[in-house]
Amino acid sequence: MTFEPTLDFARRLDAQDPLREFRQHFLIPPAPNGSRDSLYFCGNSLGLQPRTARAAVERQMQNWQELAVEGHFKGETPWMHFHQRLQDASAQVVGAKPVEVVVMNNLTTNLHLLLVSFYQPTATRYKVLMEGGAFPSDQYALETQVRMRGLEPDDAIVELTPRPGEHTLRTEDILAKIAELGDSLCTIIMGGINYYTGQVYDMAAITKAGHAVGAMVGFDLAHAAGNIPLQLHDWDVDFACWCSYKYLNSGPGGVSGVFVHERFADQPDLLRLAGWWGYDEQERFKMRKGFRPMRGAAGWQLSNSAILTMAVHEAALAEHMAAGGMPALRRKSEQLTGYLEFLINRLELPKSRLEIITPADPAQRGCQLSLLVHQNGRDLFDHLMEAGVIGDWREPNVIRLAPVPLYNTFEDVFHVGEVLAEWAARQ
Ligand SMILES: *Cc1c(COP(=O)(O)O)cnc(C)c1O
Description:
Layout: H1 7-16, E1 26-27, E2 39-40, E3 49-50, H2 53-67, H3 87-94, E4 101-104, H4 107-118, E5 127-131, H5 136-148, H6 153-156, E6 157-160, H7 171-181, E7 185-191, H8 203-212, E8 216-220, H9 232-235, E9 239-243, E10 256-260, H10 307-322, H11 325-345, E11 354-356, E12 369-373, H12 377-386, E13 389-390, E14 392-394, E15 398-401, H13 410-426
Parallel strand pairs: 2-13, 5-6, 5-7, 7-8, 8-9
Antiparallel strand pairs: 1-3, 4-10, 9-10, 11-12, 12-15, 14-15
Helix pairs in contact: 1-13, 2-10, 4-5, 7-8, 11-13
The structure holds pyridoxal-5'-phosphate.
């Protein structure tokens, strides 16, 4: 598509946008001066609230009020089976079979639970491969998982870093490192999208290469779920987890999703940390000794479901499905992010001042663009915030901006381009 840097052009794209009505389904915070909506470009951190979310919570408050303990088995949405209500949509979001997914806990908790099962080091096969500069929580999770097995993080954890002068990883380098580690490689755990650069990793190729050397392969999809098309089952990924509050709009601290490939569905002896909610549902209330897991990902559940946050998640997933799911969102997303990139590339600033470190190839990125600002980065960020553009700042000098296809418009992107141009003109 050939873009034009005019408000007219942006409005034309909005008028043709098949998803244009969805913006009205979300609550957009006002700009600091209160006169209009903010330009919300921070869905990579916390997605906006669906208008239906509040009623979904109130419905469960009502059930609690009227049914109390009976709510586990009675009413339209018995809490005992509530996780099943999220299964089909979650499976679609990540390209899985329903038995391969379950929604429970929070993301870092689930990462730990999955590593208990899928990082089982031996004396010779004990290395974990991850991206350097991964999201801090993932780093801490790995570091402590490794220590828990009596290993030293410096020895057991291998980090991938870009070539000198480059900002993102090359797939060929990732695959070469996997081959080099060979028999010593126990587990690969990477982001599906790196939170800092916005780079999408080639999950299919990484999984294939990992399996070729006998390693388990998993992904943290915090920035990928609801952002890019995923085919976890077909890619043959072993395990994955994601959060629901970024591109899945399910509220601060919202529940997390877990994927465990179907080939592990009937392996009750696969080591895991168990709780009663993962116990075979038919027999759960017999309260017997000896853990017998449910089939599939559900067998990793620990506790009875967090109904209030899961109710929000159900409402939010319904918006994604109503919009046509990932195929429809992705079509718009590529254009929306492409338009932002076009406007940034027109700024009259040399690359030595400001550059986009997110890959230019749409197949290697989602919504987000990461701007590396070599001078006065904080000043640019403050300028954006004062103008009502909500992005986020990542130390030492990156601004992340994510136009989200569910609720952002081409006009939003155009205005962000204007705000950036104002600042560039002053430099
Ligand atoms: C957002 C994010 C988290 C946050 O973890 P919580 O347990 O939900 O607080 C973890 N890992 C990655 C890669 C993230 O992007």
